[in-house]
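Please predict the structure of the following assembly.
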Amino acid sequence: MSTLDLARQLTARFGDVLSEPAEFRGEITLQLADAERIVEVCEFARKDLGFDFLVDISSLDNYGEDPRWTVVYHLRRLADSCELRIKTGVSEEKSELPTLVGVWRTANWHEREIYDMMGIRFRGHPDLRRILMWEGYPYFPLRKDFPLAGKPTQVPEVAFTQVAPLEGGPFVTAPGGKDAIEREPRARTPES
Amino acid sequence: MPEVRNIDFKDPVAQAASAVEDLQDMQGEKMVLNMGPSHPATHGVLRIVLELDGELITKATPDVGYLHRGDEKIAENMTYTQFIPYTDRLDYLAPLANNVAYALAVEKLLGIEKNLPPRCQYIRVICAELARISSHLLGVGCFGMDIGALTVFLLTFTEREKIYNLCESLTGARFTTAYTRIGGVSRDTPPGWCDAVRKFLNEVVVNIAEVETLLTRNRIWVDRTRDVGVISKADAIDYGLTGPNLRGSGVDYDLRKAQPYLCYPDLQFDVPLGSVGDCYDRYLVRMEEMRQSVRIVHQCLDRIPGGFENKSKEPVNVADGKIVLPPKNKVLSGMEELIHQFMLVTEGVNVPPGEIYFGHENPKGELGFYIHSRGGGTPYRLKIRSPSFVNLSILSHVMPGHMMSDTTAILGSFDFVMGECDR
């Protein structure tokens, strides 16, 4: 059975919230309209369609758009290597969706990482702590409004409260520029 | 005539029983032991908070992130080509494999992965397999050293040194190779390199056999690793293990076979599997994978288009001026090449909007890149799915119930690297 057939089965079951499968470079992506139903969809994919392996969960910050967050799940069937991507949007006010730890235990660390980097919370997660940054760090560094060179923090007892030493210096790239010309330090005038 | 003295040994069982009797009031008290982040058996900066009941581990909480450098954030702020040197620093024991994985991911997004010239594909496979041999040599060597078999470490490091020499003559660097480019490799193989690889392969199999004689039937080694750190098939899948750790548990999944890329479909090799899922199986899988890698590289050398010295001038880069830098002499003499060079250097390869995930069978497991592009020369989001990060998440499940001394065996058998785990 091809991945497309499996994706169609999934949309047939959850037609009200799942978009039609979209294909790009041979990969199938489904858009889930209601993030609250992600557990239901993944449980069905795992138990009935045989997607036994959760490859990865990643997240996107669509800064300036609504919904601000996109959470991306990569599912795989080990038997025939069919892969499926399920994306779901989460609004900035809510910044929360249910956890998948009950479906795949590997979701535990992936979700902790997303919470750490983007600040999206996972309801029902058994141990939602920071994983790569340290406990007490006040920012979410992969957000688009967090500058590459870092930010000072108001928490003096936490280490690294200063911005990166070269911030604003002549050889520091400016984050967020669309192309290299905007980011490239030599393209900037000294006062900008 | 020497005097004979009878020493009265106490019965050890009775002695132990009396010790338990004496310490009755201390029974059930748990001790928290902090292992790492700077500990020789944690291979970098992994910290594990162990809760011990006597010598028995009752709870293990891994703590990662000490080597976090924000690679994903960095990637969003530079062109696709500029990020290649950062991939060296992910799994720094197999930089060539990371380079290949990243280049293939961007090429998949560009839609050119099928157009790669055959010689480039063969060179990349040789690189990836040499990296696998290098990484497994270190993995097995350190595993042995952690349990006390220091000789193995010295043997394997001698061979790794030769791989670094090969890296140096191929890429100009021993460690930070940055060898691949989007759409090809930075240079063709230097004269005599393929012969040197062949010579190395013949030497390394002798070395692997020697390691095998030291460990595989060694009573101490078997006692320390067998039935220690057993991971069932279901757990391995549930926790998302990949690479030798997954196959050690008997799950037949290798991306080189399951989703073949480059010229892997043309090559013959076997995928070794464990049966129990203990540390011993993971060790055996790595040993066999090294031999299979040797087999793969031999086949690549036999078939590499253009031969060892590339007499027929086979290309190693895709013939697309908008992706690959033109030769320098043409930049200085041709208008079109000058424009291409300027655009590639200032704005980077123009990548269409879209998103892909590409998983590569790295020595440590599946190294995946999820790239979300909104067009232009920089990724909007680049997520690195690192095998060590995912593999380590099972530690809190595997370690409880083992003795404290088994931690080194379990950690050694996982063969993780923190540069990749923490990114």
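The two ends of chain A are 57 Å apart (CA to CA). Helices of chain A lie at 3-13, 38-47, 107-118, 180-183.
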